[in-house]
Structures are given as structure tokens and as C-alpha cells.
Amino acid sequence: MSSAHDAVIDRSDSLHAKEWLRAYQRVRAATEAICAPLHKEDYMVQSMADVSPPKWHIAHVTWFFEAFILKPFYAAYQILDPAYDHLFNSYYETHGVPFPRAERGTLSRPTVDDVYRYRAHVDLAMQALLTDPPQEHLPEILRRLELGLPHEQQHQELLLMDIKHILAQNPLCPAYRDDLVPAHAPEVKALGWLAYRAGIQHIGHDASAGGFAYDNEMGRHRQFVEAFEIADRPVTNGEFLEFMQAGGYTKPEHWLADGWATVKAEGWQAPLYWVERDGVWHHYTLGGLVPVDMSAPVCHVSFFEADAYAQWAGARLPTEAEWETVARDVPLTGNFVDQDHLQPVATKRAEGMPSQMFGDVWEWTGSAYRPYPGFRKLPGSLGEYNGKFMSGQMVLRGGCCATPADHIRATYRNFFPPQARWAFSGFRLARDTDA
Amino acid sequence: MSSAHDAVIDRSDSLHAKEWLRAYQRVRAATEAICAPLHKEDYMVQSMADVSPPKWHIAHVTWFFEAFILKPFYAAYQILDPAYDHLFNSYYETHGVPFPRAERGTLSRPTVDDVYRYRAHVDLAMQALLTDPPQEHLPEILRRLELGLPHEQQHQELLLMDIKHILAQNPLCPAYRDDLVPAHAPEVKALGWLAYRAGIQHIGHDASAGGFAYDNEMGRHRQFVEAFEIADRPVTNGEFLEFMQAGGYTKPEHWLADGWATVKAEGWQAPLYWVERDGVWHHYTLGGLVPVDMSAPVCHVSFFEADAYAQWAGARLPTEAEWETVARDVPLTGNFVDQDHLQPVATKRAEGMPSQMFGDVWEWTGSAYRPYPGFRKLPGSLGEYNGKFMSGQMVLRGGCCATPADHIRATYRNFFPPQARWAFSGFRLARDTDA
Amino acid sequence: MSSAHDAVIDRSDSLHAKEWLRAYQRVRAATEAICAPLHKEDYMVQSMADVSPPKWHIAHVTWFFEAFILKPFYAAYQILDPAYDHLFNSYYETHGVPFPRAERGTLSRPTVDDVYRYRAHVDLAMQALLTDPPQEHLPEILRRLELGLPHEQQHQELLLMDIKHILAQNPLCPAYRDDLVPAHAPEVKALGWLAYRAGIQHIGHDASAGGFAYDNEMGRHRQFVEAFEIADRPVTNGEFLEFMQAGGYTKPEHWLADGWATVKAEGWQAPLYWVERDGVWHHYTLGGLVPVDMSAPVCHVSFFEADAYAQWAGARLPTEAEWETVARDVPLTGNFVDQDHLQPVATKRAEGMPSQMFGDVWEWTGSAYRPYPGFRKLPGSLGEYNGKFMSGQMVLRGGCCATPADHIRATYRNFFPPQARWAFSGFRLARDTDA
Amino acid sequence: MSSAHDAVIDRSDSLHAKEWLRAYQRVRAATEAICAPLHKEDYMVQSMADVSPPKWHIAHVTWFFEAFILKPFYAAYQILDPAYDHLFNSYYETHGVPFPRAERGTLSRPTVDDVYRYRAHVDLAMQALLTDPPQEHLPEILRRLELGLPHEQQHQELLLMDIKHILAQNPLCPAYRDDLVPAHAPEVKALGWLAYRAGIQHIGHDASAGGFAYDNEMGRHRQFVEAFEIADRPVTNGEFLEFMQAGGYTKPEHWLADGWATVKAEGWQAPLYWVERDGVWHHYTLGGLVPVDMSAPVCHVSFFEADAYAQWAGARLPTEAEWETVARDVPLTGNFVDQDHLQPVATKRAEGMPSQMFGDVWEWTGSAYRPYPGFRKLPGSLGEYNGKFMSGQMVLRGGCCATPADHIRATYRNFFPPQARWAFSGFRLARDTDA
Ligand SMILES: [Fe+3]
Ligand SMILES: [Fe+3]
Ligand SMILES: [Fe+3]
Ligand SMILES: [Fe+3]
């Protein structure tokens, strides 16, 4: 079993629980590796309500295993501190009252050391449970573990997003790491268009083919997708700068009404983290403040900015069905967290096929995040995992430079509100095929 | 020509501009009839930012004809007051700077009499223009008139919504009118379900068949709609009361996360305008405060409430494609403004076919308001009419008791934010067909 | 009896209640004269939370007589509408729940005509009561009438302040009246300083000398006032413009911390109602938009602006004890509402004595509004009249061009929050006497 | 020289700078002793905008010496990090742009260790400077040191206030220390009243008598204080509980209008930090959550609550002149930080003289914080120290259980907004002497 992903797609009876334990340990270790460069002070900051302090993240993912596996299925489990259940419940309203999200930054106790003790305590219990699991509960335990591991991987990406946002507030512009793998930036080629014919597409996760997927990727269903064309790579920083120089942020005609209101209210003039220094555009990265690489995909733009660019360029964003139709046939490789760039980078474009569908930047689609036909929530509190957020958000696809490679799929549906910019979010153009 | 609708679907060369003039006059007169019961004081109130003072509505619809027809195409037109262009532009950012929406209630001048003089001034000019139109501009004039008339009809419905909201704020609960047509409330039958097979559906306005439609109803395109079932009537007040009595407003498990946050922030405990008096639920209607008719469709609920009810009932809302598939074959009749109830009423259910698809209440669908494939904005400032609102809103279908009968179509897409409640909005259940 | 003031200072047994009735009728008529130029639409606007719609003012002052005189003391009184007690109670929390202040603009009913009927109804009852008063209650009736008449006069000034604010929001800049008495603007002389010696001063209303005063002007008490100097006239528009031109609104060193925060939050760059047109400063007046008269006292400045000007000028504002010490010996004449300028005007300065202490502009003092030693609230709900506002406000003295001449006294204490600007508020400089 | 206070009152030529150095080191060490029990995580929290993270406090007080002494007067001084000047400037707008106060909690860097290095760096430089001072600047250096030491002492008290607020947010209710000195709570005696005759009082710091005082305690001036009576001890928790049980928080008649609005907006039902557990009132203290000691002075009440209690009790708060008149003759002893209770405690009342005038709780007065006659701001940026806050705040007197004993004086004027509750603030009653 070479990765967490391999693990999570085989929940057969024959699989030993110990293999799951190894997957568990690998995912847990990856979280701690992400936090290794942090000072205790960094663990504490909540730079906006959407951001959680890193300390909270590492406690919360631990709580998930405690609340949904250890407490219900491990009779011998000893609770470390009963207060943690309240403090580290993120949003499961049917599982007690969550501590208010916007006040997570006020909790100095438990300390970072306490929280690592909590992790060790839960890890030990998980090890004991999976070493000698109660057979009658094993299928349900593994089903929840299969959700708990990608849950922690999602928080690994959130940790990187949040650490970036936290350090970027600081006038000192401190680097998170100074040993990131640099990009070899080739000259980016002109954008090409790929044409797809109209037809019925099967969209969503194919449960019969096995493998894990979130509830929101099901049910698999048919969609009629009219003929369309799609760009063979994402929009670059250089192209986005042309939009800026053409007055893109000052002309309401390109914008959705809510987007234009946001531009004015927030004073947006460039993507998040961009700052002009002596006439040169820089942006804050996890390696510090550097000049913008004009060949790399533009990142940290909202849906509103992606849509405005597309309108300005005479194009539009792809729907998620179009995107999935294209991505289905593309190898699942790319610039993921494993490449250790932690920043989107330019790639040599393959002729005649789409590049960078996976990795680099999450790609905003033109689709609102709503349930598929046949969608069913998970039973119990875990039913709150995805379904209740299906309002007011837009779908993004393909993963990014902060996503674990074994976490992503062609059917994976990420989602953020249209004004959100702190995810590694970019976009790719699409357009209707002329009759 | 029996209605404005008849007029607007025939823009042939052979049509005399005078027939258009009669349609114009009919629509204009309908607006003034709606305002006839108002005091000057009622014309002034802006009870929330979304509501406009009635005076503003009647000036704004007049401005639309002035700005988009008279100024560009009627050389002899004399502007009454140049300041009106700023005051009565609603949201056309590419046509000057609109006066701030939330401050419309601060404008005591021009007075109501001034605004009626403005209406008369523009009506006179429109009459002159259409009596002797410049032939080279006639097609464009009629195209804009074809948009201007339904625009004014939309504001007729908004006037009734806003008047209701304005008077409902008043502790005196004044009736707008005391001569409304009462409902003959038959006993409502048990809800029935109608089944539809899976298949490709053609969705959106069929331009080749003629008739007017907004840009957002195009382009016509194919959608694959999986098998589904739909309720044969909307949910009633009585049914919604069961949800309330089952603790619907107090249980987060039924709600979307944004919905639950809204329930708590706003303190919602019942639909808008409902108030309990001596243990009996009353609601404010345009005829005053009356006991709730338990057989009539529930009204003034948000998308969030409709969705929560559906989740509680083990069902869901229909998509707009499902709704349109059903509505396409239903006669376009119902309880519209012409019936003069100005309130949804119970109807005798027809066996084996859906009732009340049109009229009574706008029906929330589960579809976010986004462009159809092939959508094109109108050129110029009129391009701001619909397209820029395609973010953060949900689609409603079918018209309501405040909609002019000749304004609605099976393809008509109305839209409001998911928390909005002051429209005459209700809903109908749908569900997946079991395999 | 030549004025309301004369009336209110003689509450002797021998006075006929009919004389009081005439005073009542004179004050009531003055209110209606102020409203005569209004359209019904003007009566409806609440341009900010602090402003009340004129309709509300004229109903509220009527309610005062109904609630505090007619209901308790006139057994035959017939209530016109029981709902009015809730709608027109301003802030008397011990007299039922007042209708929310910020929502007064949402009440279209009762209409303006209804409210005038309410006035007539109460006036008739007051006439009946005072024509044949119940002897056992007469002293208390007259005591309350003595408060109710200046209460209505206060609202006369508020009406003018609020009407000005309402019409000033309108881009049409409509004039309230076009027949105001113009100012004969003499050349203003250089500012002179008048010196006062240190000593014990008796401050506050001298009850033994008779005459009406509000509770907040008592108890009369001793204050030791150190030697000081005071300017012989208020600061003029021309002088204030020098402060502006010296960058006064851009330099934090002149400002109180709360003042500077307000300047930045509100974007203040000039007094309220000032606007630059083609390089010339204009300001909105009740006669419309006119060039600023540089010789007239500056008006519509906040305490923060007055204090910042004083700091910039190396001076300070007088305390209210200093102001009263000076004013005590000055004739009670000036530019009041009776002069019908409705705007501060320049006056010829009298040599060696302070000018414009009364009228023109309310003068901000450096004193916070707090109770005098020996202050006693009135009994019952009327105790809420003044005392509960003694927090967070600053004292102003001397009346203004919108104050009835018979309403003002040397001991009169007006008060507003330090950021308020819609009163006719200006200021006069003071400074310590060098040792 | 036995204390910082002794040091700061003797700025004679003969004093060796080394004695000042020892005072400096003693004050600096006291700050670090306060922080010794903290975890790094505690240093980071900003629990509300008014609270600063402890890390910020210890850096800011260091910055004060760097900015106002080392940079101007120590030529050899090497700046450790130029960015700190921006980060740790609190509010000196004339000394660059301060980092936004409400965002202090977002700064994880410099770390706690970095900040202690900064302290050591500055301490070393101060040692060098004071060991061999430039004679021509020595008077100004000492003048600024004389301000810098009480400045740091003020922040010592703020540290304790802020640490309490930070830890109190935490549902775990962690104790700051578990080794505080417990109170020996004697039975509190009935409240007694002390009478003072009317007369001229000299108020404010007597510069001729020597000793340090803040600018806001000058100029010394005369006030006429009418006869009054004052309580011989502060109001206790037990007495305040009677007010609560009498419905004090539910009756608007006791409250200032702003106070009542705050009660409703904030949902106040008890002093800050009070919580009912199983029918017993507890409160959070720096030693953890404990039952309220009914004999100790009530603490963590706002001016609004103090004033409401006084109105309910038929009394009032003393003015600051009254308070100072009384305090002038009382020994400067009490429950200060040096007693290590860190909580107000009951004391045996001395017969015939006021007790607890100093220490235990800051006592709200009825006086707004405004300048004395003859007040002069310090020159330069230090002029922002006190003067610019003289708006919207009320004066408190006497120091508290978190105040260093050598920091307080009878003339000392503390100030907070009327709604503030996180200071150790209580109150004492006063009343007018009946004629
Ligand atoms: Fe989570
Ligand atoms: Fe419109
Ligand atoms: Fe009033
Ligand atoms: Fe400080």
C-alpha cells in the first residue's frame, strides 16, 4: 500500500486493520510535518474568522477520530479532557454546541504541548483499537476511518492556506519555509483551445468501480453537455495582469453585481497577496515575498475575479460537468503538496491535450455547489460533513499545490463562497462552440 | 389584441405601432391602478433596503422609457428635469451613477404629484413617438418597448410586495384594500405524487416559436433529467404548521448551514407576516391581519425554510429543469393579480395532473440562478438587466397572485437570494424515483 | 402676556388658566407655522436615526399633553386612537415601550391629515380643560403645562434642524423657504479678548428669583472659576476656512483621539452641509445652496471640530461656568428664530463686551453634560426628561437662529454627543489668563 | 531608594543616574515577574479590541524607552529591528503610523523569545546610557525616564487586567496562578457616612511640593466643593447582589439612557466575570473560578452599573474633587499588587474615617475626564500621552489590587469609557448634605 489513497479505496474484508493503521499513521505524520516549521506563537493566530489557528486544526482532526471512532467503538477508551469535545467540534450542531468559530484564536489553553499530548493519546488508542478491533464494529470503524483520513488531509491543505494567511498579515512578511523546491519556469506558450462534442455524460463517482469518494460526489447521474471548448491551460499571472492594466478592477461592465459590490467594499485592485514594490508586482508566498512569476497560473483570485476576467476575455468559466468530462481522461498527476513547491508553477504545455487539470490551482467552475440527483447525506452527525454547505458556494475542481496527491479525483468537488480568495484558487477559460 | 402579452409576442413589420401604443397605455394604467389606494405618505416609505418607496417605482419605470427609448430615438423629446436621470436609474452602472438604493426613502422631492407629472410627460412623448415613429429606428424602438412593458409589469408585482412590506411594519396593520375578492376555500386533498421518466429535455425559451422572453431564458438547450416525482400541489399553510409544531425552527439537522445561521440571527419562528394572537396564527395580508387559511399554499417563506421543510419531509425541491418539464404541459392559468385575491388561495386539486403550477406562489426550486449554455447578454446598458445577478440567488418558477397573467411563461426564471421572504414565495416538493 | 416665556415664569395662583391657554395656543400655532411650507412627502423622511420625520414631531408634542395632562387630569377626555400612545412616546421607558426611534420613518399611517386631526382633538380638549380646570389638580396641570410648552419649543428647533437635514440629502437641494430675511453682512472685525478675574460664581437657575427652568439647570451652586479670557465673538466661517487650508482636517496632533477616529471614519473635510463648487465653498441653508458668508459664525461643526480648531489656534473652549459667568450680564437678544434668518449672520461687534452670546449658533463648551450638585430628577416618567442623558454628551450654550427667543436663558444647558453636527452649533474661544 | 516611586520623585541634580538605573531595573523586573506564569500561547491572545496580547505589552513598554530615550539621546544605539517601531507604537500618531490596535493578536512574529531579546537589547543600552550619560541631555533623559517608569507600571496593571480577560474567555477557566495570598475576610460592618463641609479646595498636583505626576493632574487649581457626605467604604458584592435581586438590571428607571441601551445590547445581568453555578454566584479571578466573597468590594462593574446602583440606593457617585478632598488626608496604603491578592478583599473598617480609598478597586467618580484649568500637553509626541483621551471617558480614583503601591497618588486620575468593565473597577457612594 503505497499511499493513504491506496488504502482508502480498498475496504475489503480481507484487508488487515493493520494496513489501515499504517495509513492512519502516515496521514497523521504528514500533518505534523506541515506544522514542524511553526513557532508556538504561529499556532495561535486567527487572522480572520475563516482562518483557524493551526493549534485548533491539529486538535480538531484528532477530535474527529475520538468522537466518531474511539468513543462509540472502543470501550476501554479513556477521555483525556472532557472539555475538548466542545472546544474542537468544528460545526457538528447535532453533536453538542460547537465553540464559536470566530473565537478560536482566544484559546491559549490547552497549549500546543497539551494538544500534541492529545494527539499522542488518541494515536495510542487508535493503535490499540486497530491492532485488536472489535469484529462486530469493524466495518463501521473502517468506514469512518475512510472518512477520517481524507478529513485530516483536507485540514492539511487548510493548514497551509491558513498559515499563509496568518504570516501574510505580518508586516515582517516572514517565510514559512526557506527550503521550498524552486520552479523551473519555462516560457509559457500561447493558450490553445480544445473542442468537445455535445452528448450525454455520466457525472459523479462510480460507486461500482470502487474507491472512496465523498457523499457530495454521488449519486452518479447523466447530464447532457452541449458542445464546448476549453482552454488547454489555466490563465496565467501575466494574462491576469493584462486584465488589471486594461482597468479590469475599475469597470463594472465585466462584473457580476455582487462581485462589483465586493470590489468596491474591499478595495480590491489585484489578487490576494499581491503588492507593488517599486513598480514591480510581488506576492507573498510560503517562501516569503517574491516577484510574481508571469508564466505561472494566477492564484488567490475569487470566483468574482475569475468570472470578470472571463467576461472581459469574451469567454466564460467551464461548468463542473464540462470540467469533469475533460478531466476524466487526463492522468492524475500534477503539482501537488508532494512536489514541495507550495506555489503554482508554469509547466510545459502538452500539445493537443489539457495541462494542469490537476494540481497547481483549484479551478473555479461556473457551477453553484448543489446536490447531485440521488444525493444522500451520511447518517447521524456525519451527515453534516458536506450537505449542509450546499448554498451560496461555487464548485472548484482539480486540487492545488497544497493538496496531497492521493486526496484528489476527477469527481472531487471542492467549494468556496464566491468572494473567498485565501484558497489556492485560479481558473481556466471555456466557451460555447459556435453553431 | 387582448393583452400586453399578445402585443409583445408579435413584432412583425405589419403590426401598427399604434397597437403597441395601446399595449403601452394598458400597462401604464395598470401601474396607476395599483397605486390608487395609496396615501402620499405610503408612497414615501422604504421599510428595508430591498424595498423601494412606491413613488420611486412609478418614477423608475417611467425613466426606463425615457432613458432607453425617448432620449435615443425621439429627437424632439424635451427633458423634464435632468436630475431625474440620476435619481431614477436603478442599477445601470454603465448608464451613469445610480442614486444609492438604500437611500431612496430620503427623497421627498420630487413629490408624488411631480412624479405623476413626469409620468404624464413621458406618456405624452411616447404617444407622439409611436403615433409617428421614425421608420429607421422602429425595429429597435419596438424591441425596447417589448422589454419595457414586462419591465413595468415586474415593478407592478414589486409594488404589491413592497406595499405589503411597508404596511406590515406599521403596528396599526392597515389594510391596503378592503375590497379584495375573497377565496372560496375548499377542503384541500391529500398530497399526490406524479412520476416522470428519465430523458433529454429541451429547456429554455424556443426563439423559433416566437413570443417574447428575457435573455436569461435563453439559449434553449438540452438537459438530461433523471426520473423524478413531483407533488401535485404546493405545500399548504397547514402542512407547514406541522413542521413548526414538530420543532422545525429549532432543529439544526433539517437546515442548510446558512439557513440555520439565518434562523438564529433573525429569530425566525414562522413565515414572514405570521403572528400568533390568542393562540391562533394570523398573518398580515393586503386585506389586513386575518387568521391563516390552513388549506392555502404557504407563502413568504425563504428558500432556506422551503429546503428545511423538504428535508424534514424526506423530500427535496425540484430542479428548475424538472419544474419546467412538468409545467410545459400545463395550461397557463391560475390565481394571478387579475383574480384580485392578492393572496394565495386553496384550489380544488385536479386528479392526475399538477395543480397551481402557475399563480398563487412563486415556487422555490433547488437550482441556483446561473446562465444557460449559450446565454448572451443584451448589448449596451440593457445587458445589465438580468445577467449580472447570476450569483448568490435561487430560481423560482410559475408566478404568483401578484403577477399579471400575461407576464408569465413556463420558461420564466425569477430569482431571489435564499434568505428573501417578502416575495409571494412558496414551494412544491419533489423526490427521486426509487430504482 | 406678550410671549410664552412670560407665561411660563408666572405660575401664581392669581393667574387665570385662560392666560395659559393663550400661551398654549401661541406655541402650538408656531409649530404649525414652521410646517406650513412642507409637502406631505417632506413630513415622512427620516434621513438618519437621529432625525425624526416632521410628522412624528408634531404628533409627539401633542402626545406629551395627552399623556401627561389630559389622561391623568381630564376625566372626560376621549382617546382618539389608543395606538398613538405607543407610536408617539419618544423615550419614556417607564411609560410603556416606545416605538423604535430608528423606524419612525416607516410609519405612513397615521397620515399627515390624521396627525393634524389628532392635534386638533387634543387642542380642543386642552381648551376645554383650561377653560374649566379641576381646581384640585390645577397646580400640577400648570406645572406640567409649564414643561410642555418649552418641550414643544424644543421640538420647533428640532423640526428646523431635521427639515434642513432631510432636504440636504436630496441632490436637488430644494429650499425649505425662499422668503427668508437676508443678512446685512457687515465686515467682521478682528477678534478681541475679554478678561475675567478669578472668583466664586453662582451657577445655575436661581429658583428664588422665579421663572421657569429645566431640572438640569438646578441646583444653583457655587463654583470657583479661575481667571480666564474669552473671545468677544464666535469663530467665523472665514477663520474656520483658514484652519481647513492649514490642513486642519489632516493633522492628528490637533484632535482628540475620538475626534480623529471620527474624521477618518466619516471622511470629514469641512463642516456639515459645506460643498465646494467650482472652487468656491457653498453650504446648504434652509434657503437653498448658497456661497458661504465668511463673516458669519461657523456652524454645523461638531465638538471635535470646535476643539481641534481651538487647539490649532492655541486656545480652548470655555467651560460652561465661564460661559455663564460672561452671559449673565449680557442682554438676552440675538438672532433667534423670530428674526427669520434661519441662518447665523455676522453682526457688528460691540466694543468691550461680548457679542452674539445668544442666538446665531449654539456654542460648544468644554464641559461634559453632568448633573449639578443638588440635581433632582422630576418625579414619575417626567424624570426621564433630562437626567438620563447625562452621559457621553457635551454642553452647548446660548441658543441659535432656530431657537424661539422666549425659550432661552443664560442658565440654559443644551447638550449633544461630541460628534453631532446637525444642530446649529458653533463655538467661541477662551484661554487661561497668564499668571 | 526603596521603590520606583521614591526614585521618580527626586529628579535633583545631585541624584546619580545610577540610582535611576536601579529604579529602571526594578520596574523592568516587575513586568517580567508578572509574565512568569504565562505560557507562550497566553502571550498571543487578544480577547477583545481593548485587550492587547501580553507579548505586545512587554514589547511596547520597551519601545517607549527606545523611541523616546535611546534613539534621540544615545548616539551609539543600534536598532535591533527597524520594523518594531511600527509594530509597537501604541497610538502616537505624530510618531509614524501605529499598527492597528485591533490586529495586535495577528502578529506571531516577533516571537516571545524575540521580544525578550528585544527587552534585553534595550535594557543593555539603557544600562550603558545611564552608566555614562551625555551630560547635556541628562535632564531631558531623566524627565523622560520619570515618565517611562510609571508608563511601564501602568502596563503592569494592564497586563493583569488583560491576562484575566484572556483566560476568562476560556471555557476551561484556567487559573493564572494558584499561589495567590488568600484574603482573611472579616464580617463587613454596616456602611457609615462621613460629612464634609462646603469650601474652596485646591485640586490637582502641587508641583511646588515636588514628586512626579502626570500632566493630566495639573494645573493645580481651586474648586468650590459644596457640602457632601461620602460612604466610609466601597459598595460590596453582597450589597450589589441586593440590587440585582431587586431587579436592578431589568428596570430602566435606575439607568442612564446609554447605560440602559448597553444593558440590553450586551445582555448584562451581573458584573463581568460573574456566573451562577448551582444557584451560587461565582466569579472568575486570577486564581480561578471561586464563589463570590460577599464582604469584598464589588468589582468589574461599569460606570453605568455604578451609577444605576447609586440611583437605586438614593445616592450618587462622588465627584473627583470630592474624592480628592477626602483622600488627601488618608494614608496611602491598601490592597495593591504588592499584597499579592490580585483581588479586592474585605477589610476591617476604621471607625470615623474612610477605608479602602486606595487599593482594592478603582472607584468610579461622577466626573467626566476633562482637562483642569491650566492643563498643558507635554511637547512633541509625548503630548499624546494623556490629553487626547479627554473625551467620552469617566474618571476613576485610588488604584486597585493590581496597581503597584508606588504608582498611585491622591491626585492620580485614571479614566475609562463608561461601559468598560475589565478594569478592577468598583465604586463608593456619596450624597448631598441636606440643608
Ligand atoms: Fe473538519
Ligand atoms: Fe427596474
Ligand atoms: Fe420630546
Ligand atoms: Fe503605553
TrEMBL record, chains A, B, C, D:
Q: Which GO terms describe its biological process?
A: ergothioneine biosynthetic process
Stored InterPro entries: CTDL_fold (IPR016187), DinB-like (IPR024775), EgtB (IPR017806), Sulfatase_Mod_Factor_Kinase (IPR051043), SUMF_dom (IPR005532), SUMF_sf (IPR042095)
Highest taxon above the source species: Bacteria
- Name the UniProt record assigns to this protein: Ergothioneine biosynthesis protein EgtB
Question: What NCBIfam families does the database record attribute to this sequence?
Answer: egtB_TIGR03440
The pathway entry for this protein reads as: Amino-acid biosynthesis; ergothioneine biosynthesis
Tell me which residues make up the Sulfatase-modifying factor enzyme-like domain.
199-346
Keywords, in A-Z order: Iron, Oxidoreductase
Give residue ranges for domain DinB-like.
Answer: 24-156
